[in-house]
Amino acid sequence: MTTTRRNLLKFVGGGAAGALLTPAPWRLITDTALWSENWPGIPRPARGEIHARFTHCTLCPAGCAVRARCVNGQPVSLAGVKPHPISHGALCPWGIAGHHLPYHPARVRQGPVKEALAAVARAISQRGAGERIAVLDLRPGRTVSWTNRRAMAAMDNGLYLAPLQPAYSIDLTEAQTVVSFGAPLFDGWGTPGNVFAARANFRLVQIEPVETRTAALADVWLPIRPGTEAAMAAALAGETTIAEAARVTGVKEEAIGAVKEAIASGPAVVLAEDPASPLMSLNAKFHALGRTVVARREAPIPEAWKRAAPVNEMAAAPDGAIRVLLIDESLPGGYVPWQDIQPKLAANAVVVVFSSSSEGYARHAQYVLPAPVYPEAAEDIGPAIDTVPAVFRIAAPLIAPVVPVVNPGELIARIAGLPQTDPLRERADAIHKAGRGTLLNYADGKSTPVKQVSADDFWKTLNQGGCWMDDSGKKAAPPGFSRSVTSPAPHDDLPLTVVAAEARRGGLESPLMSKLERESNLRMTANRVALSPADARSNGIENGGHCVLETACGRLSVVAMIDAGVPAGVVEVAGGPRMADLCGASQRARVVRA
Amino acid sequence: MIGGKIAFASGMLVALACGWLAFPRILYQTRPQPVDFSHKVHADKAGAKCEDCHSFRDDGTYAGIPTLDKCSGCHAAAMGTTAEEKNFIDQYVTPSREPQWLSYARQPENVYFSHIAHVKLGHVKCEQCHGNEGGTGALRPYQQDPISGYSRDIWGRPVSRIALRTEGGMKMDDCVNCHRRQGLEYSCMGCHK
Predict the structure, then answer these.
(1) Does A21 touch chain B (CB under 8 A)?
(2) How far is residue A31 from each of residues A27, A42, A195, B31, measured CA to CA in Å?
């Protein structure tokens, strides 16, 4: 055989064909993919001892129990705690990714603490008669909230402000029918594990204009005309005819009739997107008070704390009277639109915000001080809206703060001259002294009556993974609800009704979740709005086009999405503080081309 | 014409030989374990069981390869007169230096594997995944794929993975196949969290 160019090529061809029949090329493809995971710069958790630690998630008021897998003391994964009687071992996606938060690239990393303290001291000493020093607490009901209230009681003209908190809890386990006026029951309402544990026993009627995730999972979705909830409520209460409600709301008579029948057939509960909504007064009509809607219970507090300042809504503050406003935005919670706050400030007011994000009130404050984020700070979490018994659980820190932070409660107590104590320990001692309820230890899943536990062991268990629950006593009816249901006033210049696409959460969220949401379009990002094809066409707006969202409170540049699932006459807006500032006080809007 | 066929066949044969015989040999880097340890001696002479050294902590986490503290519990002084024993005492126990064991079964960083869920709840025997490691007289050299950085045991001993035994590999496919056979759930978040 002679060595020719042709034979050489055939040799190479045979080699290539033969190589395909060996594992080598296939293995190298796999290895190359794995090699790409090992590029320099990809962060690697440290090797070391593996331990489980327990804490509670503070990202929302649900306060789900968390089991953290820690390597070398560093949490590397979070999971639920199965024996927990309220969270039932469940965690939402934000909770699962919560340990990424301290490393969020957009986190507030430093702040002018000395300058802020000096400005506050100066403003306090120079304030005029009748000028107030106020704390705005966006997550009331915590132990630190009591510290803030005590601090305001200790100061002349101190004022404690907080978004209105419901005085009731919802007992879903007792409900046979749940009528929800836009409450995101399966998308951030209450405690996720608790809602899904009760899900098999109730029928959900979701009444809202847009088919949200909750509407898609509901047993019945009634696509109501935006702004006509009051007519639907009146029909369900028997105050108007079903035919009249059908005419106003656009929902079929048979569907409204079926909901009325379902409500009459067994225990029911009405929920509203805003827990303070007058729609909640329907519960009195449906005999739900004391059964599915019960008075909210709180853990005992030390006797001395009962002299704390009362809780006020922002509207209760006199106009132009707040000289110093300290805003505790350290945990995501309620949001008071800036348009409601601004008129209350004195002309030369000092506004200090404790926050980890520059998105919220940091846009309006003179001083932004970096606050700790979950899981850096020791906090407790007040009862969630679906927590019937009184509870006390501590979010024990899993890591030390990764940036220099200011603890809002400690600083506010210092400004007010309160003695530096450990309020969490004081409250734990007060609960222990009351001697009621049981202590659940997550490590072994055992519940022990508090009377059988020493005060030190009680404190130790709460910090190492435990929860105090007091389910003693009879369920009581909550205080009455306001009955006046109002619809947004029609406005010729603002033809669209604003519907929030999701609960308006503040603060940082896991960078991993942000990336997933943006890449998958699972949720609307902060600068987006969705319009019906008809409204988009009539305004000359294209999908993805830049527009301006206008309300009575102002204007915001947004990107429009055209969504056939959005009914005509509605603009669906993303969550976040910018949208809340723009749309919180005004439910009418228009969208125009930029 | 015949010469061309011979050239093609020759090329094919060379590639097959390289792919099946030479490739597996050059793919892996081989490193010795720091101590010549015999599972068999510990099982036979000391009556040790797997979980005596590879234990679970009180909180349910798996301790993995024992640390020097555990070894020193028995080997505070030399037990026997072998050169390996003397080396272990002199090099590690006396200076309190942790042996840098090379783990055959180390999963990549993006995998979470719960030993307690499999061993205590699922009653899976150690041998089902790790083979007869506990009955060997000496530790095999550690073989690592330098491209992926994984131990050879993760992929499985045969490079082709043809006719792989049940305990032959620890890739995701192996976990999923086992869960399928047992009729158990498997989902991304079960391991990748």
Answers:
(1) yes
(2) 6, 17, 44, 20
